[in-house]
Hints:
Blueprint (H helix, E strand, L loop, with lengths): L3 E6 L4 H13 L2 E8 L10 E5 L6 H10 L4 E5 L5 E3 L3 H12 L3 E10 L2 E5 L18 E5 H11 L8 H12 L2 E12 L6 H4 L9 H17 L8 E2 L12 E7 L6 H9 L7 E7 L6 H11 L3 E4 L8 H9 L7 E4 L5 E2 L4 H12 L3 E9 L5 E7 L9 H4 L10 E4 H7 L8 H10 L4 E12 L11 H32 L7 E2 L4 E4 L5 E4 L24
Parallel strand pairs: 1-2, 1-4, 2-3, 6-9, 11-12, 11-14, 12-13, 16-19
Antiparallel strand pairs: 4-8, 5-9, 6-7, 6-8, 10-20, 14-18, 15-19, 16-17, 16-18, 21-22
Amino acid sequence: MKPLTAFLPYTGADFTRETVGQLKASGCVERIVLLSTSADVPTLDGCTVAVIDAVQSSKSMALLAKQLKSPYALLLLHDTLIDFGQFALERMVSVAEQTGAGIVYADYYDMKEGKRTPHPVIEYQSGSLRDDFNFGSLVLLDGGALNRAVRDLGSKRFSFAGWYALRLALSRIAPVLRIGEYLYSKVESDIRKSGEKLFDYVDPKNRQVQIEMEEAVTFHLKRIKAYLAPGFKDADLEAGTFPVEASVIIPVRNRVRTVGDAVESVLKQKTGFSFNVLVVDNHSTDGTTDLLRSLAARDSRVLHVVPEREDLGIGGCWNMGAHHAQCGRFAVQLDSDDLYRDETTLQRVVDLFRAEKCAMVVGSYQMTNFQLEPIPPGIIEHREWTPENGRNNALRINGLGAPRAFVTSVLRRIKIPNVSYGEDYALGLAISREYQIGRIYEPIYLCRRWEGNSDADLDTAKLNGFNFYKDKVRTLEVLARIRLNAGRRVAGGTGAGRERKAPVRRSKGKSGKALKKSAGRPGTYGRKRGVKPGRSKGRGQ
Protein backbone atom coordinates (compact mmCIF):
# COMPACT_ATOMS: atom_id res chain seq x y z
CA MET A 1 0.00 0.00 0.00
CA LYS A 2 1.18 3.52 -0.80
CA PRO A 3 1.73 5.68 2.28
CA LEU A 4 -0.68 8.54 1.63
CA THR A 5 -4.36 9.30 1.31
CA ALA A 6 -4.75 12.86 0.05
CA PHE A 7 -7.67 15.07 1.11
CA LEU A 8 -8.28 18.21 -0.97
CA PRO A 9 -10.92 20.94 -0.68
CA TYR A 10 -12.81 20.99 -3.96
CA THR A 11 -15.12 23.57 -5.49
CA GLY A 12 -14.78 22.40 -9.09
CA ALA A 13 -11.87 24.72 -9.87
CA ASP A 14 -9.56 23.70 -12.72
CA PHE A 15 -6.43 24.04 -10.59
CA THR A 16 -7.55 21.07 -8.47
CA ARG A 17 -7.18 18.90 -11.58
CA GLU A 18 -3.56 20.02 -11.83
CA THR A 19 -2.86 19.22 -8.18
CA VAL A 20 -4.54 15.82 -8.56
CA GLY A 21 -2.36 15.06 -11.58
CA GLN A 22 0.78 15.73 -9.57
CA LEU A 23 -0.43 13.56 -6.70
CA LYS A 24 -1.09 10.65 -9.05
CA ALA A 25 2.31 11.01 -10.65
CA SER A 26 4.13 11.05 -7.31
CA GLY A 27 3.77 7.33 -6.68
CA CYS A 28 3.08 8.06 -3.00
CA VAL A 29 -0.70 8.42 -3.00
CA GLU A 30 -3.01 5.47 -2.55
CA ARG A 31 -6.25 7.41 -2.71
CA ILE A 32 -7.48 10.96 -3.36
CA VAL A 33 -10.58 12.27 -1.58
CA LEU A 34 -12.11 15.56 -2.73
CA LEU A 35 -13.88 17.44 0.07
CA SER A 36 -16.81 19.40 -1.31
CA THR A 37 -19.69 21.25 0.30
CA SER A 38 -21.79 20.43 -2.75
CA ALA A 39 -22.62 17.15 -4.46
CA ASP A 40 -23.02 19.05 -7.71
CA VAL A 41 -19.35 19.34 -8.70
CA PRO A 42 -17.52 17.82 -11.70
CA THR A 43 -15.97 14.46 -10.91
CA LEU A 44 -12.27 13.86 -11.48
CA ASP A 45 -10.91 10.52 -12.67
CA GLY A 46 -9.51 8.38 -9.90
CA CYS A 47 -10.90 10.56 -7.12
CA THR A 48 -13.66 10.09 -4.57
CA VAL A 49 -15.92 13.03 -3.75
CA ALA A 50 -16.96 13.32 -0.10
CA VAL A 51 -19.72 15.83 0.66
CA ILE A 52 -18.97 17.79 3.82
CA ASP A 53 -20.56 20.64 5.77
CA ALA A 54 -17.38 22.76 5.93
CA VAL A 55 -13.71 22.09 5.21
CA GLN A 56 -12.53 22.78 8.77
CA SER A 57 -15.48 21.40 10.74
CA SER A 58 -15.34 18.58 13.28
CA LYS A 59 -17.37 16.34 10.97
CA SER A 60 -14.81 16.82 8.22
CA MET A 61 -11.94 15.99 10.57
CA ALA A 62 -13.75 12.83 11.70
CA LEU A 63 -14.30 11.96 8.05
CA LEU A 64 -10.51 12.04 7.48
CA ALA A 65 -10.04 9.38 10.11
CA LYS A 66 -12.91 7.30 8.75
CA GLN A 67 -11.78 7.47 5.13
CA LEU A 68 -8.08 6.94 5.89
CA LYS A 69 -6.81 3.48 5.06
CA SER A 70 -3.14 4.31 4.50
CA PRO A 71 -0.54 5.14 7.19
CA TYR A 72 -0.70 8.90 6.62
CA ALA A 73 -3.16 11.58 5.58
CA LEU A 74 -2.06 14.49 3.39
CA LEU A 75 -4.43 17.40 4.06
CA LEU A 76 -4.63 20.47 1.86
CA LEU A 77 -5.87 23.22 4.17
CA HIS A 78 -6.68 25.79 1.49
CA ASP A 79 -8.45 25.54 -1.84
CA THR A 80 -5.48 26.65 -3.91
CA LEU A 81 -3.09 25.43 -6.59
CA ILE A 82 -0.16 23.42 -5.25
CA ASP A 83 3.03 22.76 -7.20
CA PHE A 84 5.02 20.04 -5.43
CA GLY A 85 8.80 20.26 -5.26
CA GLN A 86 11.17 17.44 -6.09
CA PHE A 87 10.39 14.37 -3.92
CA ALA A 88 8.40 16.62 -1.60
CA LEU A 89 5.91 13.96 -0.52
CA GLU A 90 8.64 11.38 -0.01
CA ARG A 91 10.45 13.85 2.22
CA MET A 92 7.39 14.50 4.39
CA VAL A 93 6.66 10.78 4.73
CA SER A 94 10.29 10.03 5.56
CA VAL A 95 10.37 12.60 8.35
CA ALA A 96 7.10 11.29 9.78
CA GLU A 97 8.32 7.69 9.70
CA GLN A 98 11.67 8.49 11.29
CA THR A 99 10.40 10.74 14.06
CA GLY A 100 6.89 9.53 14.88
CA ALA A 101 5.56 13.05 14.34
CA GLY A 102 1.81 13.56 14.49
CA ILE A 103 1.93 16.57 12.15
CA VAL A 104 4.59 17.41 9.58
CA TYR A 105 4.60 20.71 7.71
CA ALA A 106 7.15 22.61 5.64
CA ASP A 107 8.33 25.93 4.27
CA TYR A 108 6.94 26.86 0.87
CA TYR A 109 7.05 29.37 -1.96
CA ASP A 110 4.35 31.92 -2.66
CA MET A 111 3.50 32.13 -6.34
CA LYS A 112 2.42 35.51 -7.64
CA GLU A 113 2.39 36.57 -11.27
CA GLY A 114 4.64 33.65 -12.17
CA LYS A 115 7.27 34.52 -9.54
CA ARG A 116 8.21 32.31 -6.60
CA THR A 117 8.94 34.04 -3.31
CA PRO A 118 10.30 32.05 -0.33
CA HIS A 119 7.85 31.83 2.56
CA PRO A 120 9.44 30.19 5.59
CA VAL A 121 7.18 29.22 8.46
CA ILE A 122 8.09 28.98 12.15
CA GLU A 123 8.69 26.13 14.56
CA TYR A 124 5.74 24.80 16.51
CA GLN A 125 5.92 25.22 20.29
CA SER A 126 3.68 24.15 23.14
CA GLY A 127 2.64 27.80 23.19
CA SER A 128 1.65 27.84 19.51
CA LEU A 129 -1.97 28.22 20.55
CA ARG A 130 -2.96 30.95 18.09
CA ASP A 131 -5.81 29.62 15.98
CA ASP A 132 -4.21 31.28 12.93
CA PHE A 133 -0.83 29.53 13.28
CA ASN A 134 0.57 29.24 9.77
CA PHE A 135 1.30 25.66 8.78
CA GLY A 136 1.29 26.63 5.11
CA SER A 137 -1.27 24.85 2.97
CA LEU A 138 -0.09 21.26 3.35
CA VAL A 139 0.10 19.10 6.45
CA LEU A 140 0.89 15.41 6.76
CA LEU A 141 -0.94 13.64 9.60
CA ASP A 142 -0.01 10.33 11.17
CA GLY A 143 -2.97 7.97 10.79
CA GLY A 144 -2.72 6.40 14.23
CA ALA A 145 -2.39 9.78 15.94
CA LEU A 146 -5.28 11.12 13.85
CA ASN A 147 -7.62 8.39 15.06
CA ARG A 148 -6.55 8.88 18.67
CA ALA A 149 -7.08 12.63 18.40
CA VAL A 150 -10.58 12.23 16.97
CA ARG A 151 -11.47 9.84 19.79
CA ASP A 152 -10.02 12.22 22.37
CA LEU A 153 -12.23 15.05 21.10
CA GLY A 154 -15.23 12.79 21.62
CA SER A 155 -18.53 14.56 21.17
CA LYS A 156 -16.98 17.99 20.45
CA ARG A 157 -18.75 19.38 17.39
CA PHE A 158 -17.40 22.51 15.75
CA SER A 159 -18.46 24.14 12.52
CA PHE A 160 -15.36 26.37 12.34
CA ALA A 161 -12.85 25.10 14.91
CA GLY A 162 -12.63 21.47 13.84
CA TRP A 163 -9.12 21.67 12.40
CA TYR A 164 -7.94 23.85 15.27
CA ALA A 165 -9.24 21.41 17.88
CA LEU A 166 -7.77 18.48 15.95
CA ARG A 167 -4.28 19.93 15.63
CA LEU A 168 -4.27 20.81 19.34
CA ALA A 169 -5.28 17.22 20.10
CA LEU A 170 -2.57 15.89 17.79
CA SER A 171 0.01 18.04 19.58
CA ARG A 172 -0.93 16.29 22.84
CA ILE A 173 -0.26 12.90 21.29
CA ALA A 174 2.86 13.26 19.11
CA PRO A 175 5.44 15.88 18.04
CA VAL A 176 4.51 18.61 15.58
CA LEU A 177 7.50 19.06 13.28
CA ARG A 178 8.49 21.64 10.70
CA ILE A 179 10.73 20.74 7.80
CA GLY A 180 12.83 23.82 7.12
CA GLU A 181 12.89 23.18 3.38
CA TYR A 182 10.78 24.65 0.58
CA LEU A 183 8.78 21.59 -0.46
CA TYR A 184 6.02 23.17 -2.54
CA SER A 185 4.68 26.33 -4.09
CA LYS A 186 1.21 27.76 -3.60
CA VAL A 187 -0.84 30.62 -4.94
CA GLU A 188 -1.49 33.10 -2.12
CA SER A 189 -5.18 34.00 -2.15
CA ASP A 190 -5.09 36.66 0.59
CA ILE A 191 -2.81 39.35 -0.83
CA ARG A 192 -3.65 42.08 1.70
CA LYS A 193 -0.82 43.74 3.59
CA SER A 194 -0.06 42.29 7.02
CA GLY A 195 -1.41 45.42 8.71
CA GLU A 196 -4.76 44.96 6.95
CA LYS A 197 -5.19 41.42 8.33
CA LEU A 198 -4.60 42.30 11.96
CA PHE A 199 -8.22 42.83 12.93
CA ASP A 200 -9.91 39.93 11.11
CA TYR A 201 -10.53 38.04 14.32
CA VAL A 202 -12.37 40.90 16.02
CA ASP A 203 -14.74 41.46 13.11
CA PRO A 204 -18.26 41.05 14.58
CA LYS A 205 -19.25 38.72 11.77
CA ASN A 206 -16.60 36.28 13.03
CA ARG A 207 -18.02 36.18 16.55
CA GLN A 208 -19.31 32.61 16.34
CA VAL A 209 -15.93 31.50 15.03
CA GLN A 210 -14.26 33.06 18.07
CA ILE A 211 -16.66 31.35 20.48
CA GLU A 212 -15.79 27.97 19.00
CA MET A 213 -12.07 28.67 19.03
CA GLU A 214 -12.27 29.62 22.71
CA GLU A 215 -14.07 26.38 23.53
CA ALA A 216 -11.41 24.40 21.68
CA VAL A 217 -8.44 26.04 23.40
CA THR A 218 -10.11 25.78 26.81
CA PHE A 219 -10.59 22.04 26.29
CA HIS A 220 -6.91 21.76 25.32
CA LEU A 221 -5.69 23.71 28.35
CA LYS A 222 -7.70 21.46 30.65
CA ARG A 223 -6.18 18.41 28.98
CA ILE A 224 -2.61 19.65 29.52
CA LYS A 225 -3.41 20.97 33.04
CA ALA A 226 -2.71 24.60 32.13
CA TYR A 227 -6.31 25.77 32.58
CA LEU A 228 -6.87 28.31 35.35
CA ALA A 229 -10.26 28.12 37.04
CA PRO A 230 -11.96 31.37 38.11
CA GLY A 231 -10.49 32.75 41.32
CA PHE A 232 -8.42 35.91 41.68
CA LYS A 233 -6.46 37.88 44.23
CA ASP A 234 -7.57 41.42 44.99
CA ALA A 235 -4.89 43.90 44.03
CA ASP A 236 -3.62 45.94 46.98
CA LEU A 237 -4.42 49.42 45.73
CA GLU A 238 -2.97 51.11 48.81
CA ALA A 239 0.48 49.53 48.66
CA GLY A 240 3.27 52.09 48.57
CA THR A 241 3.38 55.87 48.53
CA PHE A 242 3.04 57.78 45.27
CA PRO A 243 3.30 61.46 44.33
CA VAL A 244 0.16 61.37 42.15
CA GLU A 245 -2.76 59.02 41.63
CA ALA A 246 -2.05 58.22 37.98
CA SER A 247 0.72 58.56 35.41
CA VAL A 248 0.31 58.21 31.67
CA ILE A 249 3.44 56.61 30.22
CA ILE A 250 4.34 57.30 26.59
CA PRO A 251 7.46 55.60 25.17
CA VAL A 252 8.55 57.41 22.01
CA ARG A 253 11.22 57.52 19.37
CA ASN A 254 10.98 59.75 16.31
CA ARG A 255 7.28 60.61 16.37
CA VAL A 256 7.42 64.37 15.98
CA ARG A 257 4.27 64.30 13.82
CA THR A 258 2.10 62.62 16.45
CA VAL A 259 3.49 62.69 19.99
CA GLY A 260 2.35 66.28 20.59
CA ASP A 261 -1.24 65.27 19.90
CA ALA A 262 -0.86 62.32 22.27
CA VAL A 263 0.44 64.50 25.12
CA GLU A 264 -2.25 67.14 24.58
CA SER A 265 -4.95 64.48 24.81
CA VAL A 266 -3.62 63.62 28.28
CA LEU A 267 -3.43 67.22 29.46
CA LYS A 268 -7.10 67.70 28.54
CA GLN A 269 -8.20 64.99 30.99
CA LYS A 270 -10.67 66.06 33.67
CA THR A 271 -10.20 64.07 36.86
CA GLY A 272 -10.87 64.21 40.56
CA PHE A 273 -7.24 63.31 41.30
CA SER A 274 -3.74 64.46 40.42
CA PHE A 275 -1.92 62.97 37.43
CA ASN A 276 1.11 63.50 35.23
CA VAL A 277 2.47 62.23 31.93
CA LEU A 278 5.87 60.54 31.73
CA VAL A 279 7.20 60.67 28.17
CA VAL A 280 10.21 58.37 27.82
CA ASP A 281 12.11 59.75 24.83
CA ASN A 282 14.31 56.94 23.51
CA HIS A 283 16.96 59.15 21.89
CA SER A 284 14.82 60.65 19.12
CA THR A 285 16.58 62.34 16.21
CA ASP A 286 13.70 63.92 14.26
CA GLY A 287 12.76 66.90 16.44
CA THR A 288 10.69 64.91 18.95
CA THR A 289 13.10 65.82 21.76
CA ASP A 290 12.80 69.57 21.19
CA LEU A 291 9.01 69.31 21.01
CA LEU A 292 8.85 67.43 24.30
CA ARG A 293 11.15 69.92 26.01
CA SER A 294 8.82 72.73 25.01
CA LEU A 295 5.76 70.83 26.28
CA ALA A 296 7.48 70.09 29.60
CA ALA A 297 8.48 73.77 29.97
CA ARG A 298 4.88 74.83 29.39
CA ASP A 299 3.14 72.36 31.75
CA SER A 300 4.71 70.93 34.90
CA ARG A 301 2.61 67.75 34.55
CA VAL A 302 4.73 66.76 31.53
CA LEU A 303 7.90 64.93 32.55
CA HIS A 304 10.39 64.46 29.70
CA VAL A 305 12.60 61.47 30.51
CA VAL A 306 15.63 60.54 28.38
CA PRO A 307 17.21 57.18 29.29
CA GLU A 308 20.95 56.94 29.83
CA ARG A 309 20.87 53.46 28.33
CA GLU A 310 20.78 53.02 24.58
CA ASP A 311 19.63 49.40 24.54
CA LEU A 312 16.01 49.92 25.52
CA GLY A 313 13.02 48.74 23.57
CA ILE A 314 9.45 49.81 24.28
CA GLY A 315 9.32 47.47 27.29
CA GLY A 316 12.52 48.95 28.70
CA CYS A 317 11.12 52.45 28.31
CA TRP A 318 8.00 51.34 30.14
CA ASN A 319 10.15 50.01 32.97
CA MET A 320 11.83 53.41 33.20
CA GLY A 321 8.47 55.13 33.45
CA ALA A 322 7.01 52.68 35.97
CA HIS A 323 10.08 52.85 38.23
CA HIS A 324 10.43 56.63 37.97
CA ALA A 325 10.15 58.43 41.30
CA GLN A 326 7.29 60.57 39.92
CA CYS A 327 5.22 57.63 38.67
CA GLY A 328 1.71 57.49 40.08
CA ARG A 329 -0.21 54.73 41.83
CA PHE A 330 -1.66 53.67 38.46
CA ALA A 331 0.34 53.60 35.23
CA VAL A 332 -1.72 54.09 32.08
CA GLN A 333 -0.54 53.40 28.53
CA LEU A 334 -0.69 55.72 25.54
CA ASP A 335 1.20 55.03 22.32
CA SER A 336 2.91 58.03 20.81
CA ASP A 337 0.77 58.08 17.67
CA ASP A 338 -2.58 57.63 19.45
CA LEU A 339 -4.91 59.78 21.56
CA TYR A 340 -7.39 59.45 24.38
CA ARG A 341 -10.89 59.71 22.91
CA ASP A 342 -12.15 62.42 25.26
CA GLU A 343 -11.41 64.05 28.62
CA THR A 344 -12.98 61.22 30.67
CA THR A 345 -10.61 58.37 29.75
CA LEU A 346 -8.26 58.60 32.73
CA GLN A 347 -11.05 59.00 35.27
CA ARG A 348 -12.91 55.97 33.92
CA VAL A 349 -9.80 53.80 34.10
CA VAL A 350 -9.01 54.73 37.71
CA ASP A 351 -12.66 54.36 38.73
CA LEU A 352 -12.63 50.78 37.45
CA PHE A 353 -9.47 49.96 39.40
CA ARG A 354 -11.15 51.22 42.55
CA ALA A 355 -14.46 49.47 41.89
CA GLU A 356 -13.10 46.04 41.02
CA LYS A 357 -9.70 45.87 42.76
CA CYS A 358 -8.15 44.53 39.60
CA ALA A 359 -4.42 44.80 38.83
CA MET A 360 -4.85 45.72 35.16
CA VAL A 361 -7.52 47.52 33.14
CA VAL A 362 -7.94 47.36 29.37
CA GLY A 363 -10.26 49.60 27.39
CA SER A 364 -11.71 49.63 23.88
CA TYR A 365 -10.61 51.75 20.98
CA GLN A 366 -11.79 53.36 17.76
CA MET A 367 -9.74 52.85 14.61
CA THR A 368 -9.05 56.08 12.73
CA ASN A 369 -6.89 57.42 9.94
CA PHE A 370 -4.28 60.12 10.51
CA GLN A 371 -6.99 62.80 10.34
CA LEU A 372 -8.86 60.96 13.14
CA GLU A 373 -11.70 59.93 10.81
CA PRO A 374 -13.17 56.51 11.69
CA ILE A 375 -12.01 53.65 9.46
CA PRO A 376 -12.86 49.92 9.30
CA PRO A 377 -13.11 47.78 11.29
CA GLY A 378 -14.30 50.59 13.55
CA ILE A 379 -14.53 49.96 17.29
CA ILE A 380 -12.32 47.19 18.65
CA GLU A 381 -13.81 46.01 21.92
CA HIS A 382 -12.77 42.35 22.22
CA ARG A 383 -15.88 40.86 23.68
CA GLU A 384 -14.22 37.46 23.54
CA TRP A 385 -12.92 38.32 27.02
CA THR A 386 -14.98 37.15 29.99
CA PRO A 387 -14.02 37.46 33.66
CA GLU A 388 -14.33 33.69 34.09
CA ASN A 389 -12.29 32.51 31.10
CA GLY A 390 -10.54 35.56 29.68
CA ARG A 391 -7.10 34.62 30.97
CA ASN A 392 -7.36 31.18 29.35
CA ASN A 393 -8.65 32.51 26.05
CA ALA A 394 -5.87 35.13 26.14
CA LEU A 395 -3.43 32.34 25.28
CA ARG A 396 -5.17 31.95 21.91
CA ILE A 397 -5.27 35.58 20.83
CA ASN A 398 -2.46 37.96 19.99
CA GLY A 399 -2.79 40.77 22.52
CA LEU A 400 -4.92 42.39 25.17
CA GLY A 401 -6.04 45.69 23.72
CA ALA A 402 -5.76 49.39 24.47
CA PRO A 403 -5.44 51.42 26.47
CA ARG A 404 -3.76 49.23 29.05
CA ALA A 405 -3.34 50.36 32.63
CA PHE A 406 -1.66 48.80 35.63
CA VAL A 407 -1.35 49.01 39.39
CA THR A 408 2.17 50.38 39.60
CA SER A 409 3.19 48.31 42.63
CA VAL A 410 2.30 45.14 40.68
CA LEU A 411 4.08 46.45 37.59
CA ARG A 412 7.25 47.12 39.54
CA ARG A 413 7.23 43.59 40.94
CA ILE A 414 6.61 41.72 37.69
CA LYS A 415 8.77 43.87 35.36
CA ILE A 416 8.28 44.23 31.60
CA PRO A 417 10.34 42.39 28.97
CA ASN A 418 12.78 44.78 27.27
CA VAL A 419 11.49 44.22 23.75
CA SER A 420 9.51 46.34 21.31
CA TYR A 421 6.87 43.80 20.41
CA GLY A 422 4.68 41.65 22.65
CA GLU A 423 5.99 43.13 25.90
CA ASP A 424 2.52 44.23 26.98
CA TYR A 425 1.05 40.86 26.07
CA ALA A 426 3.63 39.00 28.17
CA LEU A 427 2.92 41.34 31.06
CA GLY A 428 -0.84 40.91 30.76
CA LEU A 429 -0.60 37.12 30.77
CA ALA A 430 1.60 37.17 33.85
CA ILE A 431 -0.74 39.53 35.70
CA SER A 432 -3.83 37.50 34.75
CA ARG A 433 -2.28 34.42 36.34
CA GLU A 434 -3.05 35.96 39.74
CA TYR A 435 -5.33 38.94 39.25
CA GLN A 436 -8.49 39.88 37.43
CA ILE A 437 -8.20 42.19 34.42
CA GLY A 438 -10.94 44.80 34.33
CA ARG A 439 -12.44 45.71 30.96
CA ILE A 440 -14.11 48.81 29.57
CA TYR A 441 -16.18 48.02 26.51
CA GLU A 442 -16.93 51.55 25.32
CA PRO A 443 -14.21 53.19 23.17
CA ILE A 444 -12.00 55.46 25.27
CA TYR A 445 -8.98 55.54 22.96
CA LEU A 446 -8.24 56.46 19.33
CA CYS A 447 -5.90 54.12 17.48
CA ARG A 448 -4.47 56.06 14.56
CA ARG A 449 -3.47 54.04 11.49
CA TRP A 450 -1.03 55.71 9.14
CA GLU A 451 2.00 54.94 7.02
CA GLY A 452 4.28 55.51 10.01
CA ASN A 453 2.84 52.58 11.98
CA SER A 454 5.54 50.01 12.56
CA ASP A 455 3.22 47.13 11.64
CA ALA A 456 1.69 48.69 8.52
CA ASP A 457 3.24 46.11 6.19
CA LEU A 458 5.56 43.55 7.77
CA ASP A 459 7.69 41.30 5.60
CA THR A 460 7.62 37.55 6.22
CA ALA A 461 10.83 37.49 8.26
CA LYS A 462 9.65 40.25 10.60
CA LEU A 463 6.18 38.75 10.97
CA ASN A 464 7.68 35.33 11.71
CA GLY A 465 9.93 36.86 14.33
CA PHE A 466 7.00 38.55 16.04
CA ASN A 467 4.85 35.42 15.94
CA PHE A 468 7.68 33.20 17.20
CA TYR A 469 8.29 35.53 20.14
CA LYS A 470 4.64 35.58 21.16
CA ASP A 471 4.46 31.79 20.86
CA LYS A 472 7.51 31.64 23.15
CA VAL A 473 5.76 33.96 25.62
CA ARG A 474 2.77 31.61 25.56
CA THR A 475 5.04 28.60 26.01
CA LEU A 476 6.57 30.12 29.14
CA GLU A 477 3.12 31.05 30.42
CA VAL A 478 1.71 27.57 29.79
CA LEU A 479 4.60 26.04 31.73
CA ALA A 480 4.09 28.53 34.57
CA ARG A 481 0.39 27.70 34.77
CA ILE A 482 1.01 23.96 34.74
CA ARG A 483 3.45 24.40 37.60
CA LEU A 484 1.05 26.66 39.47
CA ASN A 485 -1.73 24.09 39.17
CA ALA A 486 0.58 21.28 40.27
CA GLY A 487 1.52 23.26 43.37
CA ARG A 488 -2.12 23.90 44.18
CA ARG A 489 -2.91 20.20 43.89
CA VAL A 490 -0.05 19.33 46.23
CA ALA A 491 -1.15 22.01 48.70
CA GLY A 492 -4.71 20.74 48.48
CA GLY A 493 -6.07 24.24 47.96
CA THR A 494 -6.19 27.13 45.54
CA GLY A 495 -2.81 28.63 46.32
CA ALA A 496 -1.59 31.33 48.60
CA GLY A 497 -3.31 34.64 49.02
CA ARG A 498 -6.91 35.69 49.23
CA GLU A 499 -8.82 34.86 46.06
CA ARG A 500 -12.30 35.65 44.86
CA LYS A 501 -14.45 34.28 42.11
CA ALA A 502 -15.18 36.23 38.96
CA PRO A 503 -17.41 39.18 39.87
CA VAL A 504 -21.13 39.28 39.29
CA ARG A 505 -22.69 42.50 38.14
CA ARG A 506 -26.10 43.54 39.42
CA SER A 507 -28.45 46.06 37.92
CA LYS A 508 -31.97 47.04 38.87
CA GLY A 509 -35.06 46.04 36.96
CA LYS A 510 -38.32 47.97 36.69
CA SER A 511 -39.45 46.73 40.06
CA GLY A 512 -36.33 48.10 41.69
CA LYS A 513 -35.17 44.60 42.63
CA ALA A 514 -31.62 43.60 41.87
CA LEU A 515 -31.29 41.56 38.72
CA LYS A 516 -28.38 39.16 38.63
CA LYS A 517 -26.35 39.05 35.43
CA SER A 518 -23.53 36.77 34.52
CA ALA A 519 -20.25 38.64 34.52
CA GLY A 520 -19.31 36.65 31.46
CA ARG A 521 -22.03 38.09 29.27
CA PRO A 522 -21.17 40.97 26.98
CA GLY A 523 -22.11 44.37 28.31
CA THR A 524 -22.48 43.33 31.94
CA TYR A 525 -18.97 43.90 33.17
CA GLY A 526 -16.45 46.66 32.59
CA ARG A 527 -13.87 44.91 30.44
CA LYS A 528 -12.62 44.90 26.86
CA ARG A 529 -11.63 42.93 23.87
CA GLY A 530 -8.51 44.88 23.19
CA VAL A 531 -6.19 42.57 21.42
CA LYS A 532 -4.21 43.98 18.69
CA PRO A 533 -3.30 40.89 16.78
CA GLY A 534 0.35 40.88 16.57
CA ARG A 535 0.09 44.32 17.94
CA SER A 536 -3.03 45.44 16.34
CA LYS A 537 -1.68 48.90 15.87
CA GLY A 538 1.57 50.57 15.14
CA ARG A 539 3.99 51.39 17.91
CA GLY A 540 5.50 54.73 18.72
CA GLN A 541 8.96 53.30 18.15
